[in-house]
Amino acid sequence: MPEETPNESSAHDNQPSPETPQGSSDGQKKKRRRRRRRKPAGDRTASTESTESSSPDSDSSPRKRRTGKDLAAATPSKRPSRRDKRPSNKPDREGRLESTAEDAKVVRQRNVRDSSNEDIFDQDKGFADLGLGDVLLEQLKVLKFDRPTHIQSQIIPHIVQGKDVIGQAKTGTGKTAAFGLPLLQLVTPGEDFQALILAPTRELAIQIHKELEELGFKSHIRSIPVYGGQKITTQADKLAKGAEIIVGTPGRIMDMQRRGYLSFNNFKFVVLDEVDRMLDVGFRQDIKHILGLCPKKRQTVFVSATVSDEIERLARSYMHNPEKIVTSAGSLTASLVKQYYLSVQPWDKKSLLLHLLTHEEPDLTLIFCRLKRVVDELAKTLSQKGIEAHAIHADLTQGKRNQVMEKLRAGHLSVLIASDLAARGIDVEGISHVINYDLPEDIELYVHRIGRTARAGSGGTAWSFVTPEQGPLLTAIENHINTEIPQLEYKDFKPGTPPPDYLEQEARRKARLEETLARGNRFQVGEQPVVEAEASPEKFPGGIIPTKRPPKTLGGRIRSSRRG
Q: What is the pTM of this model?
């Protein structure tokens, strides 16, 4: 018979119990054999000798399974927990950022307002001359707001006097405080749902809410942000507690009203911020619906960087003798933004971007792309090159977008890549550079993009990548902003050669375009055009006889005749 090992159980111990099946016992024996074979014999012997020397009874007593408490007690030095290992630039459970003293210093430096700039700030008036109360004036001193901007000095007195206002001002000139300060003074504390502020994006709604909390800290006026991406029940609970001011996006505001969580009956003040962008993203009907449900006896304010004839017609149809305030005559962009364009081939755009980020070393950069797919690809490429970059667009969850914005506000982020819709609500001091990786096809978007920098009197730089075929688009942008954009040349940047498949892709694209134009319709190659059939006059006796009607697609076939 083979000799038993010291720790091996007897044959009687290995017999299966009545409750344990035979297969389970065999499996346990195989596991024990595998564990014994994992260590070489020498190591196992050395380990056994060490154990025997420390415990004389180890050969007769079974090995005790050590628990987590035993390991902690046996370890003289305390092991760092996962919480201790966490980097300081990641959010904690409360969603806040752990900032070091140096980080806090950087954030404070970014938020300094240079009120000596005559292009932005009104040097002849102070906040005390605008009709604001003592409580708000005291809070403005705490925030070190010395002088109002031109848009603030002109709009605030009209709103305080109860007038409807259409305000147009350059981006980064304090439009939020221009309507926020008088609202904080006019609303009655303790009376719910008095003011409604509409914004095109959830980020902008959150930003307005945060700024109102900061400006109205001593006024004890409450505001609630209402936007998509958050649970209905969570926002419903907040609305049930009540607040004087509601800030939200049109879609979610309408949804909460339909569900009975929000009433429009008591709204005395309605503000529409970034009206031009709300119309661009398709909120026209929602705006009309909301304004139609609000009381007719109210005060209405429209504020935007650009006010077209269409916006003015819409505003005046819901206002009573509004005052139009325009402080952005001439160039629509802030004078402190240094604008340049860089001529580049499409295949060199990533290389040029890396060249700019590594050689110029901008402090805080916001990069704009047209497509969400390009946003993600660019963030991945920069991360692979050692540049920490984060992406933000509409497909990200609200929690992820909030984390990115918290990093941005706390100064832990140096490069942010965004789509136009998501970046519209980014109102953060300290953005030093804006890069138009994709030149916007909508020329008004250019104004809002570069308006993310040079805010509140600080300087900024805007770089735009322009491909050879985008020359006419650049000219249209220059005509729109009434400013000539100079070219920035980088002699040390060496352009690359087009990839092999690029020329083939361009040839196929041009061939599809030419074939589409030759056919005279909008359908792409490979798609079957819609078949329109003439309606039979016998089918419509005594009525209007249409000459053509839209077809119906059933089961993959186009039905071109009406069945009797």
A: 0.57
